[in-house]
Amino acid sequence: MFKKIADNREQDSVAVQFRKRRFAFFVSLLSSLEQPVRILDIGGAENFWRMMGAIDEDQIHVTLLNLSQESVTLPNMKSVAGDARQTEFAAQSFDVVFSNSVIEHVGAYADQQRMAEEARRVGKRYFIQTPNKYFPLEPHFLFPFYQFLPISIRVWLLRNFNLGWIPKTPDAAKARKTVTSIRLLESV
Fold first, then answer.
1. Three-state DSSP class for residue 116
2. 161 exposed, middle or buried (CB, 10 Å; 0-12, 13-18, 19+)?
3. Cα-flanking dihedrals φ and ψ of residue 16, to 5°?
4. Which of 48, 91, 165, 187 has the greatest count of CB atoms below 10 A from its CB?
5. How many helical (H) and strand (E) elements, i.e. helices and strands, does the chain have?
6. DSSP readout, 123-171?
7. Distance of CA 154 to the CA centre of its chain
8. Neighbour tally for 41: CB within 10 Å
9. What confidence tens digit (pLDDT) does each residue in 156-187 have?
10. pLDDT at residue 24 in the model
11. Which has more pLDDT, 53 or 13?
12. How far is 129 from 179, CA to CA, in rounded Å?
């Protein structure tokens, strides 16, 4: 049931509907910018842009930044490999830096801060979205209030059950690494 609600691959899932609404807001912000708009998408994928319906080849040029280069087919997209915490791009290289649910995966708070600083450095503007830590359903493990459980209990649960998008991980060290690799942000 949770996957039907939260499956980002299904056009009619609740998660995709929320993303589309949020993305429509993002596109409305782009409309005030001089065209074409150069966008750096940290952790992005061509399929996301297709699903959101934002593939206008004349008005939007997207560079996808991931740990490894991704295959792209659209002429207005390119993919580069790199680290979001320190890129090779010059300051103010992009009109907008966009990131959808990535910052919670880059590491400790200092790593998250470095990613945010890098987005501000290379972009004239930025739009960085991350799941709300206080939303009752943790979006990766699809388990109510999972993010508030002690790490030892989260590890035990992952060692014994498939949780959301994460398969059961019997090895304790691997389960702990998975559990601690996602750090949902809080407002300060």
1. helix
2. middle
3. -65, -35
4. 48
5. 6, 7
6. BSSEEEE---TTSSEETTTTEETGGGS-HHHHHHHHHHS-BTTB----S
7. 22
8. 24
9. 999 999 998 899 999 999 999 999 999 999 87
10. 83
11. 53
12. 21
Closest residue by Cα to residue 135 from 127, 120, 145: 145
The shares of helix, strand and coil residues in the chain, as percent rounded to the nearest 5, are: 35, 20, 45
Boundaries of every domain in the chain: 2-129, 137-180
Backbone angles phi, psi at 159, to 5 degrees: -70, -20
Q: Give me the CATH code for the 2-129 domain, please.
A: 3.40.50.150
Residue 72, phi then psi, degrees to nearest 5 = -130, 150
Token readout for 127 is: 């739009």
Return the sign of the alpha-carbon dihedral for residues 49, 50, 51, 56.
positive
Neighbours of 170 (CB within 10 A): 9
Q: Which run of H or E residues covers position 66? A: strand 60-66
Segment 66-96, tens digit of pLDDT: 999 999 999 999 999 999 999 999 999 999 9
**pLDDT tier, 5 (very low <50, low <70, confident <90, very high otherwise):** low
- Judge whether 94 and 38 are in contact, CB under 8 Å: yes
Question: What's the pLDDT score for residue 51?
Answer: 80
171-177, long-range: CB within 8 Å, 24+ apart, which pairs? 176/151
